[in-house]
Give the backbone structure.
Amino acid sequence: MEYETPQFFRVMQYASAAERDVVDMVSGSPDWDPPESIRTGLAEYAQANASEFQYPPSVGLDALREEIAARRGLQRKRVMITNGAGEANHLAMTEGLATFSGSRILLVDPVYPYYAGRASMLAAEVDYVAADDAGYVDPEAVRERASEATSVIVINSPNNPLGVTYGRKRKRELAGIAEEHDALLVCDEVYDHFDYSGRFESALAIDSPNVVVTNAFSKSLAITGWRVGYAVFPDPAEQGDLLSNARTRHMLTNVTCSRPPQAAVLYALSNTSPTYYERTRKLLRERIEQFTTALDRAGADYTKPEGGFYVMARFPGFPGTFENVEQLIDEAGVAGMPGEAFGDARADWFRFALVTSRVEAAVERLAAFFE
Amino acid sequence: MEYETPQFFRVMQYASAAERDVVDMVSGSPDWDPPESIRTGLAEYAQANASEFQYPPSVGLDALREEIAARRGLQRKRVMITNGAGEANHLAMTEGLATFSGSRILLVDPVYPYYAGRASMLAAEVDYVAADDAGYVDPEAVRERASEATSVIVINSPNNPLGVTYGRKRKRELAGIAEEHDALLVCDEVYDHFDYSGRFESALAIDSPNVVVTNAFSKSLAITGWRVGYAVFPDPAEQGDLLSNARTRHMLTNVTCSRPPQAAVLYALSNTSPTYYERTRKLLRERIEQFTTALDRAGADYTKPEGGFYVMARFPGFPGTFENVEQLIDEAGVAGMPGEAFGDARADWFRFALVTSRVEAAVERLAAFFE
């Protein structure tokens, strides 16, 4: 599988060129509304003093870093604002590789393709650990696969594409493996607001000098195009080079991140009711129920999501290849992602994103197609 | 000189910690107003359909790329939206080094520190060509210094820190040298709206497969913190790998750039009168006159800017070291940048940014200090 160019656009283009109506379950872009506060925050910023239109500090607006740090119970100096979770993961993986011993990256299969693409851009060899049948990564399997050559381990919980949520014990064990091998554990928590299990706990609770946590407001505030993310680095007293090298790379790559969305997110953080997040979770829980009920009817295997907004499913005799994805678009009018875009372990599965109000239509179309 | 962390913040911090009033002539942040249209564009976007808050294409909004391409007489496919000119230069330098033969980067001294820092991050050896006494880079000197090992040449016109504007002939010669050595000429034109000589012409007019032009709206619209820039790559029919590798790197680093400022810039491009740019140029021309008149009185050498908004000056017996910059802050109440932050060629000079309405106060203070 070629990861250098993630394949989402390829499928989206095929779907939008189709001659029939297609339910788009490809992208990770929410179809629900952002909170009104994010609009207000941006509109207020548009009237700010002109000096507020100029370079913010390279690591992000002080007040936004302060707000995030206060909410997470951290020191502000550990928080760096990034261009979405994408740049946060990029900095953590790149500087983890440069700072920790070893030269290999350990990823879970199925994998979020950007992690694999980035490893390839960094010319790092990758070791894959297949998720178990329930969709979790087994720390014992990671322990077997990890070695002195392991420099970075990346996990994502709640997980894309599998929808599982790792508990604290699992993350603590993975951090321990990173510590044993002088490696960095990168925990991407961008779906933290989409946990239906009640089991999610941030890896920040682990308090290890070998853990970086990455996150963004892209999904929680339904603003994937605004690019406000952050990385939380270990205490620089324990891992000073990692933070300082990431700051330098960020500065020399992007100078700083865009200020208007930072100001709007800062406003929204203090002006969004918890019911906004609850409502979104409720909506997604309903979609999960609808969709998995239909999968039962179609005789599919699936991992029922306890977090995130993706469902992986396998249909008997119809593996999740690009070819079959195209057939599903043309003949059923439903667009998903091919499992093979996420690695070998679930190459014969499909991934469906529940980011459409037409889950019901998709359900009926899939049932009819597989009947 | 250590370029990995540009020194602007160091001087700004010293100045803001000073116990006296200081005229800040350090940063490149405009103190004049952005056009009203950029505020309107952002406020309108804040009310857009929620689907417009999601991921734009990785290379930027189609309509913005189209608008830039139309204004520059280009095909849209050559234009990539970047996180300011910073990321545009980063992509051009990084992929130039990877795509063209050789492994060395050629820079002009005095140098914009980010170019040098980036070369260091890329572990590329740097060859410096000193600007001549008038502040220009002599193509013959570049020809002497360039070799088969040269992979990337970076120029900046109108120039920061020297304020010179290179004419078309000089750029054509530099592009020719790049062509001879299978190297890439990166032309950073972020100050293109600040040309007082009437001589500026974009390197796009050169039509060479060995030229990338970088730019941004940071200075022209007085929004350095918004991070909307772009790179124009050679026709992919002639240099396909360069564009495609830069796209991949951009995607794996940033996924895409922030959408709100892209939408606002798109609006502003069609709703800003030419008089806005003329007014800004007039303001800066007046500041240049004021400031250089004072430099004459102080007996300083200087390069009178024909573009940009910086003045380099040398005071007899008072070289532009960090130490003297601090003395000037403490004793004269004027903060500039030390020449040594820009390399060896003008290490004993200072750089002053004309981004303050208090140029007159600065003038009086400098005159008094040097009397």
About this structure: Chain A touches chain B through 58 residues (CB under 8 Å). Chain A has a mean pLDDT of 95.
